[in-house]
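quick one before i forget lol
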Amino acid sequence: MISFYKTTGGVMRKIEALEEDCWVSAVAPTDEEISFLQDELGIAEEFVNAALDEEEAAHVENEDGQTLIIMDIPMSEKSDSGVNYATLPMGIIVTDNHIVTVSLRENIVIRDMTAGLVKNINTKFKTEFVLYLLLRMATRFLQYLRQIDKRTVFLERQLRKSMRNKELIQLMDLQKSLVYFQTSLKSNESVLEKITRGRYIKMYEDDHDLLEDVLIEIKQALEMCNIYSSILSGTMDAFASVISNNLNIVMKLLASITIIMAIPTMVFSFYGMNIGDGMESAGLFGAGSIFIPVAISAVATLVAAIVLYKKDLF
């Protein structure tokens, strides 16, 4: 779907057709819409293909007066196990007359821009508009990282009460999300540093300050991502040790119970064997002789329980 937007009176408004100095948003474009981008706007075919490649790495390049900026943007999706976070490449193409964004799916950054949540932007000033777009992307990274941190704390509290696979799987998903964020943020930082040199898009004095703000936000997000990733990795290792320790305790308890229960069985098995008439003559199999193995097994069981308890095995 292709939509057209233009700033009028300081407000982002949707327009019906292509105009000069407007923003063209292409989300999951069809073949006809891709042809429109190439034929009507003169965008290079490789630029469009790069923006629609889900595995495309973040980079910036110039060709025939057009600039392509591929950046990884954060995304969140609800699933049965909770909320999953990932990244998706989005292409920003700057031409002489228009700004074009191309992405495979609708994302939160585009929604924020179209909803007017980003103030003081003007589609006429292309460099400034691109930088505000990148700043919104960096802000969303920070917001999602804070959500991941809160979710991690909540899952840790749940795991302290009960070790369940559900919470452990969610922690693993969050750890995977942090790896995606970390990789994408490093790539985005590299692209922004290239843009800082001023070789790819024309920069004005105010634009340098805005670009510096974007870089600060990206660096902060990367630092937060590294910290949260280290904390979550340590948490997972700690809970793995706790689970292993709990398993050892259970196995020790079961082994101790097995030993104690085996003693009466051994005693009664011994008395149940046909070992001759000597014991009969001794009166061990006479009337009331059932109390003898009972007494022996009780004493032996008690002694074994005391020994196991003192050895901290019971």
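fyi The first helix runs from residue 31 to 39.
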